[in-house]
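Deliverable D4.2, example record:
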Amino acid sequence: MGCLQNKYRDTKLTDMEILALKDKHVLPTPEVLNSVLHDSYPAFEEWDNVLSGLDIKPEWNYYKDGNAWLCKMMFKKKNLGWIGVFDGYFKVSFYFTEKHLNAIVDSDISDIIKEDFYNAKPSGRLLPMTVAVTDKEKLKEVLPVLLFKKNLK
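Output generated by the structure prediction step:
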């Protein structure tokens, strides 16, 4: 597996970490998503159903700064997080500030996700909590994060 230099930072990204939906003229339709996500597409469909059931609207946009399609998870006017699509899986990312750290410690979020979160590199003043999803089983770990973020004041 080769490495590519990230032009925005001095960190290296593996080939597996490159966003898949790069063509701004190809909308992320279910057919396109299925062709990119492969075996993880059923998990993506399930996640979409979870969002719908919680009145969370997915908003797909093409972002020029990353040259890729990303999906915002919007509850009313609140951005709860992002979905990025990769070859064979997708990542769900949530961003928090330092004032949320104590609440995260006491939350129902899994210890593995919390540990990854505490070790993650900040993005400016925001602290990222990112989970890679390859199957429906992983959604059980992501749902508590979504509910926590949705209920934050």
